[in-house]
Design goal:
single chain; alpha/beta; 6-stranded parallel β-sheet; 19 helices; binds uridine-5'-diphosphate-xylopyranose
Amino acid sequence: MASCLAYKGYMVIGVDVDVSKIKEISFGRPPFYEPRLREMLSVALGRKLFSCTNNYQHAIDNSDISFITVGTPSKADGSIDLTYVKEASKGIGEALRSKEGFHVVVVKSTVTPGTTKNVVKPIIEDSSGKRCGVGFGLCVNPEFLREGSAVHDFLNPDRIIIGGCDGRSSVILEDFYRKLYGRRMPKVIRTNPSAAELVKYANNAFLAMKISFINTLANICGKVEGADVSIIAKGIGLDKRIGPLFLKAGIGYGGSCLPKDIKALISFSKQLGYKPKLLEAADVVNEEQPLKAFSMAKEELGELKGKRVAVLGLAFKAETDDMREAPSIKIINALISEGASVVAYDPKAMDTAKKIFKESISYAPTSLNCIKGCDCCIIATDWSEFKKLKPKEFVENMRTPLVIDGRRIFNPSKFSKVLKYRAIGYNNLQ
Ligand code: UDX
C-alpha cells in the first residue's frame, strides 16, 4: 500500500519497529516477493516520495492520515492477537498528543467486530488526551488485496468499505480514495466500524467456504468412476448466482488470511454463544485436504520407506514466496514421517522452505532436476512454469512416472495416456 501510494505521487512515511526491515525497504528491497513491488518501490524511493522510520512522532507530524496495517496473528485458540494493533494505536496516540489539527487514523488490519471502537479508540484517546471526532478521526477500512497480485488489486479495488467512528474522517477518507482512483473509483459502502470489520471476515470466510465446497465435491468425484471435478466447477460456475471464481479444487487453501480469518470468525462467534457449524466444516475440510495428495502417493507406492518423492511448489499459491499455512508443509511432513525422501523445488520460496525444513529434505535448482530419479511427483502450487511441463519429461526423468496433481494444472487425458496420473477430484480408475 505504501509503495503504491508513493508511486501514485503521495508523500508516504512508513513506520515499523523492525529496524532491519526499515533499512532493507529504504535500500529498495521489499522484505518479501510480490510481482511489480520492487519496481514500484524503486520509483517511489527515487522520487523521494517514500521514506521509512521507527519514529512515530516524525510520521504523525508530517502526515494527515495514518493507516494501521500491522498483523493480527492467531492465538492458540484461533482468536486474534491484538498486541501489534494495540502497540501501533499507542504509538499513534502518543504522537498525536502534541500535534495540532485533525488527524485521521484508519484501521486496515483485519480485526474482529468491536475492536476499533472498544480497543483502538480508547487507547488513542488515552494516549493522546484527545477525543475521537474532535482531535482525531477514526475509521475501519478493510483490505482485500491478494498476495501475488497485491499491486494490481490495490490499484483496481472491487469496492471500498469505510466504517467510521466519526462522520468527519469517513468523508476525508472517501475523498482521499476518490482523488486516488479518479474514474476507476469503485462502489463505496459507508457503515459503522463493526459492520466494516465483519465484512472483511465474511469475505474471507465465504472464499474459504467456496474452496472447501469444491474440494468436498472433488473428494466425492474421486470415488465416482469417470468423474472430474473441473467439469462440475465449470457447470456450476456458469450459474450467475454461483460464478466461476474460487472453484478450483486441490489440496486446500493456505496463506496468511483465509485459514486465520475463518478460525478467528469461528472463535469470535463462539464467544458470542453461537456455534458456526458451516464455518467449522469449511475449516475441517481444509485441514484434511492436503493429506489427500499424500494418501494418493501411499495408495500408489505402498510402503514409502526408500521412495523418493518430488514436491513441485512450496508456496501457498503462485507468485509469492510465502509459505504460511502452505498445504505443501503438511504433505512434506507426512511424507517424511513415513520414511520417504523428499526433494522440493519452488521458483520463489526456496529460502522460506529451507528455514522450515532445514536438512530434512533436499532442494533442487529446477523442476526437471527435482523430478529426476523420483518415484512420485506431487504438484503442490500452481506456478505457471509447472503447467508447461510435458508428460514426456516426467516419463524421461522419473524412476517411476507417477504424477499427483494437487492443483489440477495438467490435462488429465493427455497425462493419463502416457503415465500414472492421479489428481484431486479426478477418477480415471475405469
Ligand atoms: C486472500 C483473499 O483472497 C484476499 O481478498 C484477502 O485480502 C487476503 O486473503 P490470499 O491469501 O493472498 O488472499 O490468496 P487467495 O488468492 O485468496 O488464495 C488463498 C488460497 O486458496 C491459496 O492457497 C490458493 O491456492 C487457494 N485457492 C484459491 C484454491 O485452492 N482454489 C481456488 O479456487 C482459489
